[in-house]
Design a protein that fits this description.
Elements (H helix, E strand, L loop, with lengths): L6 E5 L2 E5 L5 E3 L13 E2 H15 L8 E5 L9 E3 L11 E7 L2 E7 L3 H9 L2 E7 L11 E7 L5 H17 L5 E4 L5 E6 L6 H18 L4 E2 L11 E4 L8 E3 L15 E2 L19 H6 L13 H12 L1
Parallel strand pairs: 13-14
Antiparallel strand pairs: 1-2, 3-4, 5-6, 5-9, 7-8, 9-15, 10-12, 10-14, 11-12, 11-16
């Protein structure tokens, strides 16, 4: 079966060749129950990433990436790629970071051409570090992953409200994002002054405070068997070399859902769920600039730590 001739896409100073643009990456009705929405091809993926690039790139620039690649589409094998292959064009940014016993050369996505090249490589989902290449040990983002026991979005919504109120109370601005899977991420912009251990310890104190106040609904238990049907407040991404799904990334799930930023007001929308936006409408949501003003309000943790200690008595 032929998947069509290659297509050439111009992006800034570079030209990207899209191979087999008609290749289906998301088959129609690929959910287990035959659901799963539209069919999407590699060409559709490239078109989506090209359209969303102006909104997505600010969240990618300068950050090491882990790429989730599905060369045969969502029903085929998955590859998690940290090291940048030698055949990648030399105009694609890379950064070498320390790991136990050596280094890893991560891809960095600084421009639209790189984003399109990665889409051509069937890198459906981009997972980013919470720190930047120049200061890899010091995160400028803190992430709480609200992970429900089942596909229970009302629980997620309720946990987000409680967490948002607590963060507000200790003077930390926060932003919301659907994961494109089952939950929400609550993201706090930080001044990059503290290391990962300090940030993770603080995130754990916040999560423990919240779980202690609502022990029947929330938990920080890392083991699934200890959670019951409570929502898991996951703070594990706040560690060196850990990643979180990047804003506006496509998820490797039926219907091509997208991890999509939203405003706190939109949490009240009865139609909201974790897979609410897909490649068909995530760009429209991006154009509303739901995080406007939040990411520029980075805070140091020391004042928030004092307020949290006072709260915990």
């Amino acid at each position: 079966m032929s998947h069509g001739v290659a297509r050439t896409v111009r992006a800034g100073r570079h030209t990207v060749e899209v191979h087999r643009p008609d290749k289906v990456l998301f088959p129609a009705g690929s959910g287990r129950d035959g659901s799963g929405g539209e069919e999407y091809t590699k060409g559709d993926l490239v078109d989506y990433y090209r359209a969303v690039a102006p909104f997505m790139l600010p969240h990618l620039r300068g950050r090491p990436l882990m790429l989730e690649r599905h060369p045969d589409g969502v029903d085929g094998p998955r590859f998690m790629q940290k090291n940048t292959p030698e055949h990648y064009p030399d105009w694609i940014s890379r950064v070498e970071v320390a790991k136990e016993g050596g280094t890893v050369c991560h891809t960095v996505c600084d421009d639209t051409a790189t984003l399109l090249y990665l889409a051509d490589q069937a890198a459906l989902t981009l997972h980013r570090w919470l720190s930047r290449a120049g200061d890899a040990d010091r995160p400028d983002r803190m992430v709480f992953d609200l992970d429900p026991a089942g596909d229970d979005f009302p629980r997620v919504r309720e946990a987000a409200v409680l967490l948002g109120e607590l963060l507000d109370g200790i003077g930390l601005p926060s932003a919301l994002m659907t994961t494109g899977s089952r939950g929400l991420h609550v993201i706090v912009p930080l001044r990059a002054g503290q290391d990962f251990d300090e940030v993770r310890e603080f995130a754990r104190d916040v999560a423990d405070t919240l779980a202690a106040a609502h022990p029947d609904r929330l938990t920080t238990a890392a083991r699934k068997k200890d959670r019951g049907d409570r929502l898991y407040l996951d703070i594990q991404r706040n560690a060196y070399a850990q990643t979180a799904v990047a804003p506006y990334s496509v998820r490797a799930l039926p219907g091509a859902p997208v991890a999509t930023p939203l405003s706190w007001d939109q949490l009240d929308d009865p139609g909201l769920h974790a897979r609410r936006w897909t490649v068909a409408d995530a760009v429209e949501q991006a154009r509303t600039r739901p995080w406007d003003g939040v990411m520029s309000r980075a805070r140091a943790l020391a004042p928030a730590r004092r307020r949290l200690s006072a709260l915990r008595g």
